[in-house]
Structures are given as structure tokens and as C-alpha cells.
């Protein structure tokens, strides 16, 4: 999905705000280490980690080694670890105190022409402070970029405010809004599947597809993130971004080229043609759930409301199911069933495209549709379910799979999404990042749903941890003569 085939990297300074945080340790630093280990980073590439703690670079490196070890153990190599550590610098900065940006200035000043990436892996409330901080300290050069983690705001109004503040300091071409799902290989493969093959495009429309299901199911619960999660909920944490991005890639028209603007133009059109859900439509087409106690993978799980840091009467949803529709010639009348939840039965991110039944069956067989199943995680698999005659005298059809297992097909190790995203920011390739108009369009569709939930005081329906969500989720899809895939295998 790159706009050019030039994958080389210019010298860079990657400045990680939130440098001691969970994301830096679990994903960002491991991602950079993997690429360093594979000799894909230029010699002149530094990683400057910034956090509040008053640590020396050596102390930080010791802390980093401990925190990221389990995330890089498969690729760990003593000598590349040592050279990776040479790239690391640490600065203890209170980002609310302007004078302290001077420390960063001293480190960056000798290399004014390098690509500079300010990566904001902090609470969204700090985004604009940091942007102003680096701007007022004179650190923003023409070759600078800013990368922001989701969620961008908590509704349309706050997202617009953040985007306006960013625009005061950076051009849109310098802003990289991250949705890490776009960095996943299988998500990029959706584009390859749709637009690199002749086979699917002619049938990728309402005449041939009856419904599409998109599931992001997690076994993890709220864990230690109650501070963030209880204020956020599944709708803002997962639906507004990851789920809508998957929907958009599935539903978009073929872009005229792979150029970032061409791809984003098509994505934005889909977001704008989502049929608005307002008032009673919200009550009929959405399900809001919250996990109660149960067992996930054989281990007991405490109810969400009893988890550390969660208000005992919390209304925050940990599960959402939605029937979405797209007002367009291609998709009119095709429901897109979206669901996501925490503490569910299985970890599985999967897209199921159900094709229409044969108009008249000459075989004695249940009328089960052909299906295209695209599993993004934990395994990367694409399966086309078709029917074939089983062996024997009888003309009995059986469902069989045409399978593509990425692990078997490709020798290269499975990358983590952030490797691709971080390197694309340094390269200056915006294809896998969200334009501000996408963020605005996504919130415009989400806001009325959340407002209606608030207005009607829709309390999340409890579901047992380890289940597939509340029964209302099955009822939602059953009302449309469909069933979630695990209900109709
Ligand atoms: C994050 C959410 O964006 O995505 C988390 O904040 C969620 O709540 C995570 O667990 C899921 O990502 P992945 O890549 O594990 O599916």
C-alpha cells in the first residue's frame, strides 16, 4: 500500500513522549528493535524517550531492558541489543513546563535537517500542550512530523478542537493519526484481496453479498486500564476507530491509485454514507453490554464493576454490537454487523462475508451460503467456504475450505503493526493513517448513538465473562435472519 517502492529511510530522530509508558514498552520500542535487528534502520537514527521521571539514560536503558525483554525474546540477540541501546536517549521532562523543552532542543539542535518525529504516546489531554511546547521551543522544522495515538477526542467537538490545535502547529501532511489496525498485515491484505484480484470485485456488492460480519473479540478484560477504560468504553475505544476502519476498507470503492489521498478519499466517502442511527433506531440496532463474572480460558474473571478502579455502578460498556448500513448503490440493504467486546470466549478478529444462497438448489443439502472468512488474529488466514461433493456414491455436498494460511505461505516472520507504522511515519508515507476528515466523519456517526444511549439511559446488559456477549447480540442478528458465525457453523 505504499505510494512508492522506496523503502529506504533517511536519518531520523524519533521523539517518544510517554517513553516509559505501556505502549512504548510493549509495542513501540520492540517494533524499532526488530527493524534494527534486521538492519533496516539507518545508522543515524536516534530514539529519544521522554517521560516525567528523573532518570539518566543508563537508568532508563536498564528499565527498558527489563520491561521489553518478554516482548522481543524471540528475536533477542546480544550484539544487536547493544547497538540498539546506542540509539536510545532519555530525557526527564515535565511537558507542562515550557523551559524544560530546552533539554530536547539541545539534543535535537545539532541535526536540524533530520526527519523529526514527535510521537505522542500520552493521554489525549496532553496532545495540544506538547504540540505547543515543541512549537514554542522552535523544534518544529519542515521535516518534522507528529504522530498521535487514538482515541482522538471523546466526541466530535473535542476531536475538532484537537485537530484545530494540531493544525496551528503542523500541516495536515505532517500529521499522522494512528489506528494500529491499519498497520496489521491482514488489514492491508484486505486491500490486496479486493483490488489485486479480478475474482472478487464483480461479486463484491449487494446483488451477491447478503451480509457482512466484523468481530473483534478479546479475552482480555479491563486489566490495569480502568482509569482510561471506564471513561471511554468499547464504543469509543474500538468501534469509532478499529471496527469502522475495517468496515471502510471492506466497503470502499476501488481508489484510482494507491496514493494516500486517493485511498483516503474513498474511505471518507464510506464513512459519510453510513446510514445515521438516531433515536429509536439506536435502540433497535445496537446492543450495549458489560461483563459480569465468569471464566475465560479456564480462569476466573471478576465482574467489570468489581474490577480495580471501576466505579461499582459504572455504566461503561465493554461490549457493543451494531447493525450498520451504508446508503450507496453498492451496499443498499446489506447489513454490516459489527461487534467487539472484552472478556469474551475467544480472542478473534474476523470478517465474515456471507454470499447469497443459490437461487434454486438441486441438491439435498442445507442452504448454507458460500462464505469468505478473513481472520486477522490470532492467526492470519483467509478461507473461502465452498461446497463440493464428498467421496462416495451419493451426491451429497459438503462444505470445504479453500485456505490461505499466511504462516505457511510466507516465510517472513509476522510483523507487529507498529513496525510498519513507525517506519512509514519516518518515510513520510501517509497511506495507513487517518485524515482529519475521516476522524470527523467517524465521530459524526458515533456521537448520536452515544447521545441516544445517554438520553434513554440505556444500561449495558450483563453478559458472563467467557461468553460471546449478551443474548441481545444474538437476537439483533437473528432479527435479520442471520446468525453470528459461531452460531451457524
Ligand atoms: C486498543 C484498545 O486500541 O486496541 C484496547 O485501546 C484493545 O482496548 C486493543 O485491547 C486491541 O488491539 P489488538 O491489536 O490486540 O487487537
- The CATH H-level superfamily of the largest domain is Dihydrodipicolinate Reductase, domain 2
What is the third-level CATH name, the topology of the largest domain?
Dihydrodipicolinate Reductase, domain 2
Global morphology: globular
Cα-atom radius of gyration: 24 Å
Q: Helix tally?
A: 15
Distance between the termini: 34 Å
The total of beta strands comes to: 16
Major beta sheet summary = 10 strands, mixed
State the gist of this model.
The protein has 489 residues and is α/β, with parallel strands linked by helices. 35% of the residues lie in helices and 21% in strands. α1 crosses α13 (417-427), α9 (233-251) packs across α14 (436-455) and α10 packs parallel to α14 (436-455).
Notable traits:
Dihydrodipicolinate Reductase, domain 2; six-stranded parallel β-sheet; single chain; 489 residues; binds 6-O-phosphono-beta-D-glucopyranose; 2 domains; 16 strands; Rossmann fold
Structure commentary:
- By secondary structure, this protein is an alpha/beta fold.
- The chain folds into 2 domains: 12-149, 3-Layer(aba) Sandwich (Rossmann fold); 182-415 and 437-488, Dihydrodipicolinate Reductase, domain 2.
- The protein is built from 15 helices and 16 strands.
- The strands form 2 sheets. Strands 7, 8, 9, 10, 11, 12, 13, 14, 15 and 16 form a 10-stranded mixed beta sheet that branches. It has a 6-stranded parallel beta sheet with strand order 3-2-1-4-5-6.
- α9 crosses α10, α9 (233-251) packs across α14 (436-455) and α10 runs parallel beside α14.
- The chain is globular.
- 6-O-phosphono-beta-D-glucopyranose (BG6) binds next to loops.
- Residues 218, 220, 237, 349 line the site of 6-O-phosphono-beta-D-glucopyranose.
Amino acid at each position: 500500500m505504499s505510494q512508492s517502492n522506496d523503502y529506504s529511510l533517511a536519518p531520523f530522530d524519533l521523539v517518544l513522549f510517554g517513553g516509559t509508558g505501556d505502549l512504548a514498552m510493549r509495542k513501540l520500542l520492540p517494533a524499532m528493535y526488530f527493524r534494527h535487528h534486521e538492519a533496516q534502520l539507518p545508522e543515524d537514527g536516534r530514539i529519544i524517550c521522554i517521560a516525567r521521571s528523573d532518570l539518566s539514560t543508563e537508568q532508563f536503558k536498564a528499565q527498558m531492558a527489563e520491561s521489553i525483554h518478554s516482548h522481543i525474546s524471540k528475536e533477542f540477540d546480544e550484539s544487536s541489543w547493544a547497538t540498539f541501546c546506542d540509539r536510545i536517549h532519555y530525557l526527564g521532562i515535565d511537558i507542562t513546563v515550557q523551559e524544560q523543552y530546552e533539554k530536547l532542543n539541545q539534543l535535537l539542535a545539532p541535526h536540524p535537517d533530520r526527519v523529526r518525529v514527535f510521537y505522542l504516546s500520552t493521554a489525549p489531554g496532553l496532545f495540544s500542550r506538547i504540540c505547543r511546547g515543541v512549537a514554542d521551543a522552535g523544534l518544529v522544522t519542515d521535516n518534522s512530523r507528529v504522530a498521535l495515538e487514538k482515541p482522538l477526542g471523546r466526541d466530535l467537538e473535542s476531536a475538532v478542537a484537537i485537530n484545530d490545535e494540531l493544525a496551528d502547529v503542523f500541516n495536515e501532511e505532517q500529521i499522522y493519526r494512528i489506528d494500529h489496525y491499519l498497520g496489521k498485515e491482514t488489514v492491508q491484505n484486505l486491500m490486496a484481496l479486493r483490488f489485486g484480484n479480478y475474482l472478487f470485485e464483480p461479486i463484491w456488492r449487494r446483488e451477491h453479498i447478503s451480509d457482512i460480519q466484523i468481530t473483534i473479540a478479546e479475552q482480555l478484560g479491563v486489566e490495569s486500564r480502568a482509569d482510561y477504560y471506564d471513561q471511554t468504553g468499547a464504543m469509543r475505544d474500538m468501534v469509532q476507530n478499529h471496527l469502522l476502519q475495517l468496515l471502510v476498507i471492506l466497503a470502499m470503492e476501488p481508489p484510482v491509485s494507491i496514493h494516500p489521498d486517493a485511498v483516503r478519499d474513498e474511505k471518507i466517502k464510506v464513512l459519510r454514507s453510513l446510514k445515521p442511527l438516531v433515536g429509536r433506531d439506536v435502540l433497535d440496532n445496537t446492543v450495549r453490554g458489560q461483563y459480569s463474572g465468569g471464566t475465560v480460558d479456564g480462569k476466573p474473571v471478576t465482574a467489570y464493576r468489581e474490577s480495580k478502579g471501576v466505579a461499582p455502578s459504572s455504566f461503561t460498556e465493554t461490549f457493543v454490537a451494531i447493525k450498520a448500513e451504508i446508503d450507496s448503490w453498492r451496499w443498499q440493504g446489506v447489513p454490516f454487523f459489527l461487534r467487539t467486546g472484552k472478556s469474551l470466549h475467544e480472542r478473534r478478529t474476523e470478517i465474515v462475508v456471507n454470499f447469497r444462497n443459490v437461487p434454486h438448489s438441486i441438491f439435498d443439502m442445507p442452504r448454507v451460503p458460500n462464505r469468505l472468512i478473513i481472520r486477522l488474529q490470532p492467526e492470519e488466514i483467509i478461507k473461502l467456504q465452498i461446497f463440493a461433493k464428498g467421496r462416495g456414491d451419493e451426491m451429497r455436498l459438503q462444505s470445504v475450505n479453500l485456505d490461505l494460511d499466511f504462516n505457511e505461505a510466507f516465510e517472513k516472520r509476522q510483523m507487529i503493526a507498529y513496525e510498519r507504522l513507525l517506519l512509514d511515519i519516518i518515510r513520510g508515507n501517509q497511506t495507513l493513517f487517518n485524515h482529519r476528515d475521516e476522524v470527523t466523519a467517524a465521530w459524526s456517526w458515533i456521537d448520536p448513538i452515544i447521545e441516544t444511549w445517554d438520553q434513554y439511559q440505556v444500561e449495558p446488559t450483563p453478559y458472563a465473562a467467557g461468553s460471546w456477549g449478551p443474548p441481545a447480540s444474538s437476537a439483533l442478528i437473528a432479527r435479520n435472519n442471520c446468525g453470528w458465525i459461531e452460531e451457524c457453523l
